[in-house]
Design a protein that fits this description.
Layout lengths: L8 H22 L7 H7 L4 H7 L3 H25 L4 H18 L5 H7 L2 H8 L3 H16 L8 H12 L12 H15 L7
Helix pairs in contact: 2-3, 4-5, 4-7, 5-8, 5-10, 8-9
Length: about 200
Amino acid sequence: MPKIIGGSLNAHREQVRQRVFTALRNQLYERGFDAITLAGVAAEAELGRTAMYNHFPDKESLLVAFVEEEAAQYVRRLEAAVDAAADPVDQLAVFVRLQLRALAEYHLPPGSALATTLGPASYRRIAAHADPITQRLRTILTDGMAAGRLPEEDPDLLIPMITSALASRQIIDVPPEQLDAAIAGAVRFILRAVGVKTGK
């Protein structure tokens, strides 16, 4: 029987999951998704193959579980950061910065590639995690319009344009020392694009 890590079976399972996710995160950074294997992740997480398959029977289930975990953490971080800014324009700037930082940190295939990598049900599970992010953007925009800080526009038109702009890896695929400037430029672009009223 495998050795139990932690004080209970549930704690053991959670610690194993976190070890696996850490190993997967490292390998995504170093190699990219296509080069990853369950055996390679298990080896880095110091798990036997049988133990790995008990938790994640295939690469797709591992990816889905990892994205769900990362997305939940990111949504909590996004909500806290946006809530800390009182003005809707500041909230939009925070939103843009965090979205681009997240894009720079993660090394998953883009949405279109994920759709072909995963089965339809798995892709829908992952895509569903974008819903609270999109809803927060909608709230920022509608609050900004209600406060007179943004001109009246249809949020259903603005949201896909903003999210498409923020999904481009070309923005953040720059040398590390240029990343802050690239993100700052993207923030200025998005604020101008939605017609931020500066009061000047």
